[in-house]
Amino acid sequence: MNKKGKCFIIVLLMLFLLCGCQGYRGLDEMVIVTGIAIDKTPENDNYRLTFEIVDLTVPVKEMGLKGQVIESEGKTLFDAVRNAKKRITKKLYFGQAQIIIVSQEIARNEDVGIIIDWFLRDVECRETMCFIISQEETAREMFEIEALTHPLVSTEINNILELDQEVTSTTLCVELYKAFGGLHSEGEELALPVIHKAINNGKTVGETNGMAVFKDNKLVGFLPPNESKYYLFAIDEVKGGILTLSAFGEEHNISLEIFENKTGASFDYKDGKVKVTVKTDTTVYLGEVMRPYAPMDEKEINELEDIAKSELKKNISNSIKKVQSEFGADIYGFGNMIYKKDIKLWKQLAENWEEHFRTLEVEVESEIEIANTASLK
Amino acid sequence: MPKETVSLRQAACTFVMFLFGSSVIMGVNSEAGQDSWISLLLAMLMALPIILIYARIMRLYPEMDLFEIVEKVIGKIGGKIVTILMIWYALHLCALVIRDFSEFIKVTVLTETPQLNIMLILILVVVYMSKSGIETMGKWSVIILPVITLVVIFTMILGLERIDPTNLLPIMGHSLGTIAGGAYKIFAFPFAETVVFLCLAGSLRKKDSPYKLFTVATLIATVIFLLVIMRNLLLLGPAVTNAKYYPSYTAVRIINVGDFLVRIEGSTALNFILAGVIKTTVCLVAASKGITRLFGLCNYKHIVFPLGLLAVALGTLLYENIKEAFDFLEIYQIYAIPFQIIIPVFIWILAEIKVRQDKAANGSHSPDSAQTDAAG
Q1: Distances (CA, A) of A17 to A3, A22, B19, B98, B301
Q2: Residues in chain B within 8 Å Cβ distance of A339
Q3: Would you say residue B3 lies in a domain?
Q4: Residue A44 backbone dihedrals phi, psi, to 5 degrees
Q5: How much is the ipTM here?
Q6: B113 touches chain A (CB under 8 A)
Q7: pLDDT in tens, B42-74
Q8: Nearest of B325, B335, B331 to residue B101 by alpha carbon
Q9: How many domains does chain A have?
Q10: Alpha carbon B86 to chain centroid, angstroms
Q11: Which residues of B touch A178 (CB under 8 A)?
């Protein structure tokens, strides 16, 4: 046999040695988790995890995608994750997990950093998972809801959150790595999206419900949707949504659809007092005028712009004032802005930033431009 | 054995790949957080003089490798001692890099595969590359370097949607000491590790300037590093960048373009492995050449395989766990001083004196020294 032939046989034999990998896991050997809900058991203070998994026992082609719920308990999160194996034949796979729902109770009593650790440490979990607070008594309840547009509850909730910013702008999908960044950056507190149950056509469904405010990594309160919208305005995360106004002597008869918004913040330090200026610049469409039809004229549009400006300005200031006085948690990242722009000043203020934040003077300037009046004159 | 030569371009590409090597997965993120890029630039400034000294040694004795040079300038016994030291450094570095790579693969991709298997398969490729020779390595680098650079640029562009420019603020938020400390770390790992190239210096042709090679390659590597640091910081922010062992990998993990281009972190893993193969090969060839010289063997290719296995064995013994691997960087920057600074500077000074003495003794008969004068 010539040399080439020998080499060929050796290579052929090597194929058997080198192919595949140790610890092979095929699709048939894993249970795909799409969402995780974290609760605590009242009796023994264990973590109770609820996983939504993709049900692969039914043929997906004929029956469609279906979810199933698995519960497990453990002293730590990872312990609970592995304990799930007691009830199922295969190991859970987290590579496709999209959301983590944490119960109010845990968020109020524990540092959320504790919860984030495992998800960020484990290599299977994606850093882009959405981190959510449940406003219901437990987090697991959220997996009992009926998803309206997708067979899997987790995907439904994830999609609701991800697209919310562009349509209603009342809440924000905070990804795991961003939440971690928020917990570990100077002069900034965390705010996470909130979901709760709602009744729709006789069925229980999931609905976003504003933002949860954290202080020192613990939940201190909620911003309902009508206030969280202005929080998003202040942190420049508005990409869409509706502003309602009262004009022409009627209550709430005008809808403006936000097309584009740009917010900038700056600060000023004088005589030991910090003053923050928030400037918003919004382009809107006039989407609805609830009155018997009459063509809009230039004057009316200008009038609307003025009303919208003062209304927006008032709402943003009120929402900031509420957060300042009620929570004292700098979810706007004003402290972070000072840290980033003037580190020397920040070093003076950092120690009692909470006090400074509470007494901070915030000036809001709003600019609104009505770009068009949709398809009616 | 016939002399292997590489062109300037091939040498430069190999050099850049060597620098890129393992440091992209573990080195370039210093504790300086958002000021890492300042550390990097400082490190480059620190590295340039020492790298120019390496180049000067090559220029003084062109077409000779370090082991021949030390024998010439220090004498037989002193030369052997330095040779042994450099063999140890090259072999140790080889083991470190292999271990870092298997550690990376273990932590990120193949969590259930024993590390020894990963290392063995890596070393098989490296031994094959070393046996194919320095010329093959040079040609391979020319092809692969653009791939690696493109992956970095490509991931940077894909990540643009998610970047937050304020992550870079405040500039100089860390004390000068921290930034300089980070800079020194980057200096020792990877910039000054290029001392290993002196062991392969014999392959550079006489007409090619080592100064040009070293400076241009260092600048190219710095630019790529800068891109990597910027990408990681802009995408992840300093907190996550510092907390993660492999921030590049994480940064690419979060890229998501229209739910279509997602989960492309395999591309960075590929990058690490491609560059790591070159770095390991260079170290392995350097150690083999040293041993060949030490024992008067005829061809370094015969001992590449046993040395490779030795490096794997050393690699398995080096650390208990990944934490030790990263903590070793602190010790490494001190441990490496003799190999990276003291020995080369020592050789350089002696070489300068020796060349001048030879010239004085031979008058204008030595073409070697005449050329050095013109270049120096």
Answers
A1: 21, 11, 33, 21, 26
A2: 170, 173
A3: no
A4: -120, 15
A5: 0.83
A6: yes
A7: 999 999 999 999 999 988 888 888 888 988 888
A8: B325
A9: 2
A10: 15
A11: 237
